[in-house]
Amino acid sequence: MSLPAASRLLRTTLRTRLMPAANLTYKPAKHNISAGEQAIALTAMFVTILGPSGWILAHLEDYKTKK
């Protein structure tokens, strides 16, 4: 099912006005991060995200019981 030409033209016009093209530039990094710093950052992210989830899953039976 195709849209009439006027509808397609209007949709294209609105799309280009609402979302202008991004100005992307590709440059080398200003600060090089060492492998140790990357490992620390990745570990911190995993602990922050997976730690609470693991705690909840490990204690799920405790949460199910009413005291």
UniProtKB/TrEMBL annotation:
GO terms for cellular component: mitochondrial inner membrane; respiratory chain complex IV. The keyword Transmembrane applies. It comes from the Eukaryota. The chain crosses the membrane at residues 39-58. Its main location: mitochondrion. Belongs to the cytochrome c oxidase VIII family. This is Cytochrome c oxidase subunit 8B, mitochondrial-like.
